[in-house]
Amino acid sequence: MADKAKIYIIDVTNRDGVQTSRICLSKLEKTMINLYLNEMGIFQSEFGFPVTRHETNYLNANLELARKDALSPIRLGGWLRATTDDVRNAFKLVPHLKHVNLSISTSEQMILHKFKGKLDHRSVIKEMTEAVKEADKLGAESIGVNAEDASRTKMDYLIEFAQAAKEAGADRIRYCDTLGYDTPFTIYERIKLLAEKVLLPVEIHCHNDLGLVVANSLAGAKAALDTGLDAYINTCVNGMGERAGNADLVSVILAIKYGSGMQSYSLDEKINLKMTWKISKYASYAFGVPIPINQPGVGANAFAHESGIHADGALKDRRNYELYDFEELGRGEPEIIETGRKITAGEYSGIKGFRNVYEKLEVVFHDDQEATRVLELVRYANVHNQKPLVDDELCFIAKYPDIARKIFTMSP
Ligand SMILES: [Zn+2]
């Protein structure tokens, strides 16, 4: 490896985040998350499920945005089961797909009690390697192989599985702590051994069932980097994700940048935290889940001081009680809230009020025809989101009307 090994972020909000119970995003909201992640310099967004039919238009439309450089340089990766049928279907439905993660369970528990005789240890490896080869043949530029329940998988088998993935052409092995079972001590040891034996970059996918998700993600990444290999940490905005959630995007970045002993490890230099405030607030609104008051970086109390000694100390020198600056996270700007008359654009808006809304956003339409066309799309977007649109959504629709139309379109 020529360059020093680095930590990259693969955000899975649009996959693990949306497959969570009681949590969902509209296709427009998923698109906005991709756009914000791109602005934040995130390496890859796992943007959805290529074989799920209601995702097809959204996925193709987002890949079109990528080709127009609106979603670039971020990579858009699809999540699939590691079967040749799913791989073929994925590339049929989403022909411009370039990046995939292929998933299959590897633990004793799941092979015995989920596959129930349909697959054994041998055939799990066979299915996976055939799927990798198929994805490669169909033009995938990068392939991650997911070992589901890796943390409960016997180490020898996990190494054999990853070795086979590498030989078949995989670029990364995703170590999934599917149940949040690992601790920082075990995940470090296991990933260190895996990395040393297989010499394949490692993706770390952790869950928060024991409250250890960020610590485990860092420990796993450290093990890969200590072996000289790149690490890819899976995150979700605001720590969403199945059950107790995945690693919070902002917490992971802050921990790598400011955690004790982490300074000798390189984080993808494209990442900037300026978008933090915006993406967290947007995701909270889109998911309908408030940001906890004590959330790292973005909680209402993250930079609040009240007790005499702390307030005095923070005022004398912010470094007395703050590890990082709120300005770095895009906080500190006043937010203007209209307290007088406000015209909104909704499902039943008319052209006059609509033009007033867009004038405030400084969006100019060439003629009435264009304005009427965008108004119609904004009405549909409101039906689609079932909540008032934010300014960035309104601007997006005006800028990319044809792509927006595709995103809203679903035909079962
Ligand atoms: Zn997961």
Short description:
The protein has 412 residues and is of the alpha/beta class.
Layout of helices and strands:
Elements: E1 6-11, H1 13-17, H2 27-39, E2 44-48, H3 56-67, E3 75-81, H4 84-93, E4 99-105, H5 108-113, H6 121-137, E5 142-148, H7 155-168, E6 172-177, H8 184-198, E7 202-206, H9 213-226, E8 231-235, H10 249-258, E9 266-267, H11 276-287, H12 308-316, H13 351-360, H14 368-385, H15 391-399, H16 401-408
Parallel strand pairs: 1-2, 1-8, 1-9, 2-3, 3-4, 4-5, 5-6, 6-7, 7-8
Helix pairs in contact: 2-11, 3-16, 4-6, 6-7, 7-8, 8-9, 14-16, 15-16
This protein binds zinc ion.
Order of helices and strands: EHHEHEHEHHEHEHEHEHEHHHHHH
Using DSSP, what is the number of strands?
A: 9
Label the structural class: alpha/beta
How can the largest sheet be summarized? 8 strands, parallel, barrel
Structure annotation, total helices: 16
Poorly predicted segments: none
Globally, the shape reads globular
Return Rg in Å: 22 Å
Please state how the strands of the largest beta sheet are arranged side by side. 1-2-3-4-5-6-7-8
Query: What share of the residues does DSSP label as strand, in percent?
Result: 5-15%
User: Oligomerization state of this entry?
Assistant: single chain
